[in-house]
Design brief:
The chain is mostly helical and 92 residues long. It folds into two domains: 36 residues; 55 residues. Helices cover 86% and strands 0% of the residues. The longest helix has 45 residues. The protein is flat and about 55 Å long. The N and C termini lie far apart (46 Å).
Length: 92
């Protein structure tokens, strides 16, 4: 597969999976509303669902904006072994 085809195919797959995720999320919310309505139990469920999602999103954003670029730079500069030996900022 050529690089050009891969560059066109990869975003298409990500877009299709993102659309499917939104559709399944809508179905989940519709089923929840149909089954339980707007009650305290539904509110508790939604809060319990949002808190871990928020934490995972924060960790994911931190990894994608800080660790991955630094690791990739070390990988290109020093090779695989050098990147894996990269010291963590909190190590002394």
């Amino acid at each position: 597969m050529s690089t050009r085809v891969a560059l066109i195919k990869a975003p298409g797959i990500v877009a299709a999976l993102s659309i499917a995720s939104k559709i399944f999320g809508f179905i989940r919310e519709t089923a929840l509303a149909a089954g339980f309505g707007a009650t305290y139990a539904t509110d508790a469920y939604l809060v319990g669902q949002v808190i871990p999602s928020l934490l995972f999103a924060a960790v994911g954003a931190a990894l994608s904006t800080t660790f991955i670029p630094v690791f990739a730079e070390a990988y290109h500069a020093e090779g695989r072994e050098g990147a894996y030996r990269m010291p963590l900022p909190l190590q002394t």
